[in-house]
């Protein structure tokens, strides 16, 4: 307030270093006055020269990145060092972070560890956490999971939610210690009670599945609701399942849909997940029509997987009547989004007239598109098509080229057919040694007709056809 500013000015003018510090903070933050960094710096420097370590710390933080203030990491470190020289634990913590991240100084994890240790001696919670991370990862010191836990526990004892959450993760994942679900729940509960959203999510899931605690669907719903109200999309989705299945709450489809919609608004990919789970009955509820509705909801987001799922539903009549035209439309959309299997589906649809009139030229183009994307099936199909003139003009040279692509990709039938083309010299120059190579490959891949091709070669060799 204005009265406080007046008091600080008067006290500072009378030589009070602490009042000078407070007045500097007023100008730095713009509390009751127009923010004035120049004036703040002058006052911080006066307070620092008078032996107030916090003044140098505040200056360091200004240079480290205050809003609207030009950053100067090197000057920040210089002021942190002055504050540390006066014994300020918070300054040691800032220096540790500077050396840990290479801000204003060359990165030096070992030196950072030393500064964090000095800050920890002064009881700084942030230093406990930094030391715990250092021991956990072996950065700046030897890796020691037990020491890491000890420092996390010291930080948690001061009320650090982040430390409690990390301890939960340590025991849940067995990071340097045996997995202990009960201990994980204990620490996650402490973090959740401190409003940690990830901890709430974990606790809810623990109660739902009985991991580290007895199963309790009502407690699961309670913690999912806490997490959802804190903005957790996954918790919103889980509340949807709870209401849909009547687990921990009375079954309410309208409420379930409301929570699902809120979750999908934050995480659009959940729409497809919900549809898949409903189709498979993974969460105690199987409803193919509702699954199809969620597939359609996912399809509005434009994702390739959703487009493919909708196409399959229309093709097979899952949650809707079979609709070939719609299936083809959605397979085309999935193909345009990069799904090679969908490209093949479209190719076969045009070949057979599925979803419309057969179109050999379009089928050829779609098979070629699939082949260019690496589909061995499409390569083989094109080889066969050109070999017999199915939907295209017969062209043995083109057939050989497509067979070779499929053969090199490991397709046994293509290896056999390419081998026989080399035997016959059809569409390609006759080469019995190359023929033997491909026929042998086909035999190795257990293609039944390969042996007859090799027998033919042997017969040709016996008749002197092959140069000896």
CATH architecture of the domain at 382-468: Alpha Horseshoe
The helicity comes to over 70%
The profile of the biggest β sheet is: none
Structural class: mainly alpha
Strand content: under 5%
The CATH topology of the domain at 382-468 turns out to be Serine Threonine Protein Phosphatase 5, Tetratricopeptide repeat
Rg over CA atoms, rounded to whole Å, is: 36 Å
Order of helices and strands: HHHHHHHHHHHHHHHHHHHHHHHHHH
Show unreliable segments: none
Mean pLDDT level: 94
Identify the notable features of this structure and list them briefly.
26 helices, mainly alpha, 468 residues, Serine Threonine Protein Phosphatase 5, Tetratricopeptide repeat
Could you describe the 3D structure shown?
The protein is an all-alpha fold and 468 residues long. The chain has 26 helices and no strands. It has helices spanning 2-13, 17-29, 37-49, 53-65, 73-85, 89-101, 109-121, 125-137, 145-157, 161-173, 181-193, 197-209, 217-229, 233-245, 253-266, 270-280, 288-299, 304-316, 324-336, 340-352, 360-372, 376-388, 396-408, 412-424, 432-444, 450-462. Helix 6 packs antiparallel against helix 7 (109-121) and helix 19 packs antiparallel against helix 20. The longest helix is centred in the middle third of the chain and has 14 residues, at 253-266. The N and C termini lie far apart (106 Å). The model has no long low-confidence stretch (mean pLDDT 94).
């Amino acid at each position: 307030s204005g009265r406080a500013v007046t008091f600080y000015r008067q006290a500072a003018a009378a030589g009070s270093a602490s009042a000078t510090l407070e007045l500097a903070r007023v100008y730095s933050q713009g509390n009751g006055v127009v923010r004035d960094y120049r004036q703040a710096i002058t006052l911080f420097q006066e307070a620092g020269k008078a032996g107030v370590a916090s003044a140098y710390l505040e200056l360091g933080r200004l240079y480290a990145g205050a809003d609207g203030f030009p950053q100067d990491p090197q000057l920040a470190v210089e002021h942190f060092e002055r504050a540390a020289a006066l014994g300020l634990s918070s300054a040691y913590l800032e220096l540790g972070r500077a050396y840990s991240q290479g801000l204003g100084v060359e990165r030096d994890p070992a030196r950072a560890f030393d500064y964090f240790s000095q800050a920890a001696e002064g009881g700084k919670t942030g230093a406990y956490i930094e030391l715990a991370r250092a021991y956990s990862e072996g950065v700046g010191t030897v890796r020691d999971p037990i020491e890491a836990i000890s420092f996390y526990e010291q930080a948690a004892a001061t009320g650090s939610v982040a430390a409690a959450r990390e301890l939960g993760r340590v025991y849940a994942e067995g990071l340097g210690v045996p997995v202990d679900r009960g201990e994980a729940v204990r620490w996650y509960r402490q973090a959740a009670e401190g409003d940690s959203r990830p901890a709430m999510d974990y606790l809810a899931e623990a109660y739902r599945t009985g991991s580290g605690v007895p199963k309790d669907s009502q407690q699961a719903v309670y913690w999912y609701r806490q997490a959802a109200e804190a903005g957790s999309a996954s918790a919103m989705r889980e509340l949807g399942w709870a209401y849909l299945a009547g687990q921990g709450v009375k079954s309410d489809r309208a409420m379930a849909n409301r929570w699902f919609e809120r979750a999908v608004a934050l995480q659009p990919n959940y729409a497809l997940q919900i549809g898949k789970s409903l189709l498979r009955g993974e969460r105690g509820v199987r409803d193919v029509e509702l699954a199809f509705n969620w597939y359609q909801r996912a399809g509005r987001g434009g994702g390739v997987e959703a487009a493919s799922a909708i196409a399959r539903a229309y093709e097979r009549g899952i949650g809707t009547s079979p609709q070939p035209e719609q299936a083809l439309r959605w397979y085309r959309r999935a193909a345009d989004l990069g799904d090679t299997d969908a490209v093949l589906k479209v190719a076969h649809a045009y070949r057979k007239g599925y979803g419309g009139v057969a179109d050999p030229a379009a089928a050829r183009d779609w098979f070629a598109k699939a082949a260019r994307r690496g589909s061995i099936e499409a390569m083989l199909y094109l080889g066969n098509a050109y070999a017999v003139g199915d939907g295209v003009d017969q062209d043995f040279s083109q057939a050989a080229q497509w067979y070779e692509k499929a053969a090199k990709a490991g397709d046994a039938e293509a290896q056999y057919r390419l081998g026989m083309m080399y035997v016959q010299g059809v569409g390609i120059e006759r080469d019995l040694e190359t023929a033997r190579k491909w026929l042998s490959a086909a035999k190795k891949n257990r293609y039944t007709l390969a042996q007859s091709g090799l027998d033919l070669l042997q017969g040709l060799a016996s008749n002197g056809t092959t140069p000896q």
